[in-house]
Structure formats: C-alpha cells, structure tokens
Specification:
The chain is 47% helix and 20% strand. With 562 residues, it is an alpha+beta fold. The strands form five sheets. The chain has a six-stranded mixed beta sheet, sandwiched between helices. A five-stranded antiparallel beta sheet has the order 4-5-3-6-7, with helices on both faces. The radius of gyration is 25 Å and the shape is globular. The relative contact order is 0.09.
C-alpha cells in the first residue's frame, strides 16, 4: 500500500540522507519485534530486529552530529554519507547489523565521490551537491557487491540475496529520478524477500522469511519515503508473521547447533593484517563478516573459542569495544569473568555531568554518563543494564529525547531475562526525585509506582545559553541570551544567570511546591546558588532548597520543584 504525501525533491542530498536515517530508525522501531520473532538464521537467537535498530540508531546519531557540527550551514552529501557509514560501522550489532553497515558503506563509496576513500571521482566538475538516479543505481549495486565481499561464505536466501535483487531492480529503472529508483529497489527487495523461504531450508521449515532481509526492506522503504514523500507499508506474505518459539527452535537442525559464542569487536588495523585475520577466523568458526576499511574494521564471528577470536584481533591490530555473547545465556562480557550472583534489583540512570554521576552512584545507581549534544545509544543502555547484573532493573532515561532509545534498550534486556521498568523521566532532577523514594525491599511493582509518582510530581526547568538568534515561545532570543526553560519550553529570556533563574523559579513555584532542587553547571558560581536559596527562603514559606554541583559536561543549571 502506498499513501501519497507532499512532493519532495527526487535527488538524494544531505537533507534527504538525514531524513532517510530518521525514517529508517522509526521503521525498524515499529518492525523490531516482528523481525526478532522470525529470526532463525544463522542462529535462532531472536535479536535481528533489535540489532538492526541499534545499528541504524548509531548511523542516524552520526548524521545528526554532522549537521550540528556545520550549523548554520549544511554538511555536504559526501560528509553526510561518510558520517552515516561510519556511525553504522562503529555501532553495528550482530550478523545482520554488520552486513547492513557494509551495505551503507558501499553506498557511501559511490555517493560520497572522492571524499570517501575508495569512491570514484564525480562525473563532472562543479556537479551539484546531490546524487541523481543513475548514481543511486550505482550506489545500490556497489552496496550489494561489497556486502558479498565482506561475508566469508555468502548464503542465498538471506539479506545478501535481497540486497542484490534491490540493486538489480534499481538498475532496470532506466536512469529515472531517485524516488523512482528507490521505489524500484524497494519493490525488487520485497519480491526477493518473499522468495527466501524457498531458497534457504531453515526458513522454509520454520515458515518465515529472512529476518535480515525483512529489515533491509524496512530500510529501503524509508529511503522511498525520504526521496518521494510516499509512505510505503509492505503487506507481507502470511509466513512472515509466523513466530518461532523456543520449542520450534529445538527442531531446527545444524544452524542452531553451531558455535557457542558470538564475538564482535572494532579493530584498528591495516588491510594486509585484516586479510590474514579473515583466514584465521574462518578456521575458528562460522558466520564470519569483516566490514569497514581505511584502518577501522568491524569484526563479527561465531566461535567456540572466544578467547582465540579476540587473540587473533590482538595480533592483527588493536581491538576494542569487544563484545562476547554466549548463545542461550543472554549475557555479554567484555572480558572473561567468573559468574557472580545477580542482585535482586538495580537502578540504571542516564546522567549529565560528573557531579550528578557521583550523586547517583552514591545512591547505588549504575550510571550512563552523557554530555550535551551526545546522547547515549540503546546499546550503551543495554550494556549498563548488564553491568547492573540484577534480576529487576528500573531505567531512568532523564531526557525526553531518549524515550525510544530507552524503550529499545529495555526490550532488548527483557529478551535476556531481566525484568525492566522504564520510568519516563525527562530531566535528571526528576530522576533524583524518583531515586529519593526508591525502596529495594518493596515489591517491584510498588517501588516502580512510587518512583514514577515522585518523578511525575516534579516539575523541571533548565537554563541554557542561546547559540543563535531564533524564535521561541517567549519571543525572539539573540545569540548569548540566557534561556529559562520550563518542562522543555522556553519561558524566560534573560541576559544574566541569576535573574533568569529567579524568574523561572517564581513561575514554577506559583503553582506550589515543597522542595526546590538546583543542579549547578561548572561555570555557575556558588554565589548564584546563595542568591537563589535566599530568594526561595524569603519568598516562599516552608519551601526547602537543596543544591548539587553538576560538574563538567552538565547543563548550565537544572531546576526541580516537587
């Protein structure tokens, strides 16, 4: 089904790439559970949809960072696709995510021209900073070719087959505009996906299509949306909705009885060393995929001897972000560690600034430090949940923009046997309020309700410095103005920190309150806190004030009113 939308440019430029990444992330977010449920090859571990989501999430964040770094101008197409490919490479998860990262890299080699190592020269000097339909055709063809090259033993009926069919269909579009080429690629991918159960026996026995191919269809559908404004929604064949449960997985031979560990790591090494590494890892296990280039690689392999796989990486170069997953165990480790008993309950919180990280840690929380403009990815939250090593986890994202990211992390952790409750805290001060009422001796549900109520009863404000002139709900601000935000919206525009903070406090306390929490950024002097404490004490009877230091990487000021 296709829903017509407003007309958008049919050429692929930096803005379209950014839109593509965001739409792909949204599409995979919606399809994640479906894709996880049909994941039977190469291992029936039910995480392909999540791995693809995490990979595209990393690519999308890298593209957003490229745009932020060029404001007010736009990055070039080459810079944007390079960021997309690099983000996917460093964030690739699982067999499917690793292959997808190579597909995006292959496209970037063509779309990025000479700015991407390995990319061909532009067809003509002075060409506009966008790709036309023929260039997109070549990019899709190069993507499929490079993915086949990255996989040690390509198997038909997988995402590789779907990518090749998409490229072939795009080439048959006859040099049309990008939107038409993308739609042809999408239709070709859909047809190839429906044929996968007849190409790969394990899919036919389980009655499902290839999970990685299903994810690629979602990504290509997002490309159609970014280029043509159409919203495509695939109506899959009946077998693509079949869910594979644990009992069915026991009946799948060979593929599910393979190596015990999945090993993934980033590797800094030259091409000659990687060629030797491929040969060595191929002897150690299967499902070998090595992607990347220009000194940075992502290595994925299934082995029985995880230590030997890591040792091979050490001999080839410098491995880091090492991730070892024992199939069926649901736990990942960066190094071999003796098993330890799980705690009953833990708190995992995203915190801005070293001071708050220390405060949360003192209260017993496992923290995920972040800085302004650099939000954590779902994978970082999943790793933190694993580090907490508890049967029950309360997750505090402390940022409205992290809602979907935290939800993806919670879903992944639940597949690993952890009971996770996500409390939608939108600021670190709401997290402090939730943490203050946390009682590990209570029943889990009761504790979550109490923490959620405390967070919800806390209004939050923030002080920030305007980076440029812009329209706000409080009027026009100039670069350098101090902005006072309440519940995420600009409410006050000032020139100095203390008066602006006072105005924000007055507005927040006008509806009542019992406790004010102030978190000061590194540049805010203690005298400002003293002035604000005095103002609250003299103006609002029976309202207490508590002050914390946010330290480096924290916001200018956070304000909470309970």
């Amino acid at each position: 089904m296709v829903k017509e939308a407003k007309q958008v440019p049919q050429n692929l430029d930096a803005v379209a790439v950014r839109a593509w990444c965001r739409l792909a992330l949204d599409a995979l977010g919606r399809a994640r559970e479906e894709i996880d449920s049909i994941n039977v090859y190469p291992v029936a571990d039910g995480d392909t949809g999540t791995n693809l989501y995490l990979t595209v999430e990393s690519a999308s964040q890298a593209v957003d960072a490229a745009f932020t770094g060029h404001e007010p101008a736009l990055p070039s197409l080459a810079e944007t696709v390079h960021a997309m490919a690099h983000g996917a490479l460093i964030g690739a998860r699982g067999n499917s995510g690793t292959i997808l990262s190579q597909l995006l890299r292959g496209m970037a080699q063509v779309l990025g021209g000479p700015d991407i190592p390995g990319g061909p020269e532009r067809e003509s000097a002075g060409e506009a900073d966008h790709a036309d339909g023929r260039t997109l055709e070549r990019a899709l063809r190069r993507a499929a070719e490079s993915a086949y090259e990255a996989v040690a033993h390509p198997v038909e009926g997988t995402v590789l087959t779907v990518a090749t069919a998409a490229a072939k269909a795009a080439g048959e579009a006859g040099g049309a505009d990008c939107g038409t080429v993308a739609r042809a690629a999408y239709d070709g991918a859909c047809a190839a996906l429906d044929a996968t159960p007849g190409q790969l026996a394990v899919l036919g026995r389980a009655g499902v299509v290839d999970a990685g191919g299903r994810g690629l269809v979602a990504v290509l559908g997002a490309l159609v949306g970014a280029l043509s404004g159409e919203t495509v929604s695939r109506k899959p064949a009946d077998h693509s909705h079949a869910r594979v449960d644990d009992a069915e997985c026991e009946d799948i031979p060979a593929e599910s009885g393979g190596p015990a560990f999945e090993v993934i790591y980033l590797l800094e090494a030259d091409d000659s060393a990687v060629a030797r590494l491929r040969a060595r890892l191929d002897r150690l296990g299967d499902s070998l995929v090595v992607v990347g280039g220009d000194g940075l690689w992502n290595v994925h392999v299934h082995v029985d001897d995880a230590g030997a796989a890591v040792e091979a990486g050490v001999e080839a170069g410098r491995p880091h972000r090492i991730r070892i997953t024992h199939f069926g165990a649901g736990d990942a480790h960066t190094t071999a560690q003796p098993p330890r008993e799980r705690a009953q309950r833990a708190i995992v919180a995203v915190v801005p600034g070293e001071g708050l990280a220390g405060l949360y840690a003192e209260a017993g929380a496992t923290t995920v430090p972040t800085r302004v403009g650099e939000p954590p990815a779902s994978g970082e939250l999943v790793d933190a949940i694993r580090r907490a090593h508890a049967r029950e986890v309360v997750l505090l994202p402390n940022d409205a923009e992290l809602r979907h990211t935290a939800a993806a992390a919670a879903e992944q952790a639940r597949t690993e046997g952890v009971r996770v409750a996500l409390i939608p805290t939108r600021s670190a001060v709401q997290g402090i309020a939730a943490l203050a009422v946390h009682a590990p001796d209570r029943r889990f549900d009761e504790d979550v309700v109490a923490m959620t109520s405390a967070a919800g009863a806390t209004r939050y404000g923030e002080l920030a410095v305007a980076e440029r002139q812009s329209w706000t709900m409080a009027g026009i601000c100039q670069a350098g103005d101090v902005l006072g935000l309440i519940d995420g919206d600009v409410a006050v525009i000032g020139t100095e920190v203390a008066p602006t903070a006072t105005s924000v406090l007055d507005r927040m306390l006008s509806a009542g309150g019992e406790m004010v929490t102030l978190v000061l950024g590194e540049s805010v002097p203690d005298t400002v806190a003293g002035r604000l404490e005095k103002h609250v004490r003299e103006t609002y009877l029976a309202v207490d004030t508590v002050v914390y230091r946010g330290g480096r990487q924290s916001a200018l000021m956070l304000i909470g009113v309970e």
